[in-house]
Structure formats: structure tokens, C-alpha cells
Amino acid sequence: xxxxxxxxxxxxxxxxxxxxxxxxxxxxxxxxxxxxxxxxxxxxxxxxxxxxxxxxxxxxxxxxxxxxxxxxxxxxxxxxxxxxxxxxxxxxxxxxxxxxxxxxxxxxxxxxxxxxxxxxxxxxxxxxxxxxxxxxxxxxxxxxxxxxxxxxxxxxxxxxxxxxxxxxxxxxxxxxxxxxxxxxxxxxxxxxxxxxxxxxxxxxx
Length: 205
Prior knowledge:
Layout lengths: L4 E5 L3 H12 L4 E6 L8 E2 L2 E5 L4 H4 L6 E3 L8 H13 L6 E2 L4 E2 L4 E2 L4 E2 L4 E2 L4 E2 L4 E2 L4 E2 L4 E2 L4 E2 L4 E2 L4 E2 L4 E2 L4 E2 L4 E2 L4 E2 L4 E2 L8 E2 L2
Parallel strand pairs: 1-2, 1-5, 2-4, 6-9, 7-10, 8-11, 9-12, 10-13, 11-14, 12-15, 13-16, 14-17, 15-18, 16-19, 17-20, 18-21, 19-22, 21-23
Antiparallel strand pairs: 3-4
């Protein structure tokens, strides 16, 4: 069966992790990678960097699908800006879910988001647009995660937690059930979050 084509936008370390999932699950044919102007004609794994942001409109003819492979450490602004730009140009941003993850059929993952390897997503979970759910995360029943969030490796989010748009949860953090975390907040690596966190807060344990 002929696979749909996809353009990857971002040429750093997160791109490599996304490529691994796309390749191992044979999801799409990767037509190339978008990077910085200075990176043009270099490779990420076996894929050519075929242009920069300025070329995105012209590259729509190569692939109707695009996926943001820019990483997100703390701020979501770059991923959010690129998401808006790709939608405006006319790209489709699929949802990518690793076959090694356990994702309830009673959950919902929105467009442009990726669920990476060995992740567990339980029933009633809602995950917004353009999110990274990184390797080994556990997201329990009834959790709601807003748009443009990064849930890092090994995070445990217990039941009925609410997380606002643009928030970053650092690796190995644990969020107590029922907690509400505001928009554009940062939860540092290894944190234990036992009570609500307001918008635009950096929480470090």
C-alpha cells in the first residue's frame, strides 16, 4: 500500500525521536526536513534538510502533511508559532501515536500531537493540539491537557488533573490527582505537584 507523504519541520534531537516512531511503525514516507538556512543540504539520520521556513509554501506541493519536530524545553512559543503558520499555509497536521504505547479508545489526542514510545493513556483523557507526550509517560483517567504542552519522559499524571495550554512538565515529575495547573507554566524535572499551580508559574521541587 502506498504511504502518505509527510514533511518534518525541525531538525534537532526531537526530530530524530519522531523519525524513529514514523519509521518503525511505517506510518508515512518522509519527504524531507525543514531546518535553518545554514543547515540546508545536511542530513538528519538519512533525511535531507530540503529547506527552511521560507520554503514551506512552495513545499506544499511535495506533501500535504507536515509534522512539527521542533522540541519544547520550557517555552511553547516556537512550536505554537509554527503550528499556526503551517495551518495557515494549508498543511494537514496528523496525530502520531507509537504502536508501543497503550492508548485507550475512550481517550482523544488532537491534531499535530505525538504520543511517543511506551506511554500509557487511560480512558477519558483529552490531549490538545500540537502536544508532545514523551516516552514512558503515564496519564491516568479523566486528565485534560491543553494545546502546545510537553509532557516529558517518565511523567506520572494521576486522575482528573487539568493542565493549561503551553505548559511544560519536566521528566519524572508526579502530579497528584485532581490538581489544576495553569497555562504557560513550567514544572521542573522530578517535581511532586500536590496542589494547584497558577498561570505563568515556574515550580521547582
